[in-house]
Design brief:
Strand content: over 45%
Number of strands: 6
CATH topology: Bactericidal permeability-increasing protein, domain 1
CATH architecture: Super Roll
InterPro entries: Haemolymph_juvenile_hormone-bd, To_sf
Structural class: alpha+beta
Organism: Atta cephalotes
Pfam families: JHBP
Protein name: Lipid-binding serum glycoprotein N-terminal domain-containing protein
Length: about 170
């Protein structure tokens, strides 16, 4: 699989957040309703003869659990204190997935069936193989979103010592 794009990581439920403000550290427990990966697959198989194929794939992960540890750093810019996300490590819990491939070439119907059977019979091994890539992609996207928000809001605005009544 290549050129995978991840969608749906902004649709989640926060189960818990445990902050450690002295260390600028947060432990998070989240559930994603749906995660979608779209990309391409290609393979080069040689049994009696060489078979190569390239096509589009779509993977849907439902009810994905995520436990994450977020580290923040503080910087001072123009006399104001700001934070940014420096590190996000996580462990995702993928229970099951649905894998769809582009089956537009009718002459490859038997090959498509073989691919689906191999995937459906080896889901646990596949999850183990792709999990680090998914965790990395989610981490990078969350850090990007957080830092986009944090660069506009000062530390004092985020973690005010005084409660403002509006």
């Amino acid at each position: 699989m290549r050129d995978e794009k991840l969608y749906g990581f902004c649709d989640f439920v926060v189960n818990s957040v445990y902050p450690d403000p002295d260390k600028d550290h947060f432990n998070l427990d989240l559930n994603f309703k749906h995660l979608h990966l779209n990309g391409t697959f290609d393979f080069d198989l040689r049994v009696l003869m060489q078979i190569t194929h390239k096509g589009m794939n779509e993977i849907t992960l439902d009810k994905v659990g995520l436990k994450a540890e977020l580290d923040l750093k503080t910087i001072t810019k123009n006399g104001n204190k700001y934070i940014y996300a420096s590190k996000l490590s996580m462990n995702i819990d993928i229970k099951d997935f649905i894998y769809k491939i582009d089956e537009s070439r009718k002459e490859l119907a038997d090959l498509y069936k073989i691919i689906k059977d191999v995937i459906n019979n080896n889901k646990e091994a596949i999850v183990k193989q792709v999990k680090p890539s998914i965790e990395k992609e989610i981490s990078e996207n969350i850090i990007l979103v957080l830092n986009h928000v944090f660069r506009r809001i000062s530390y004092e605005e985020l973690f005010s010592e005084k409660t403002k009544i509006i």
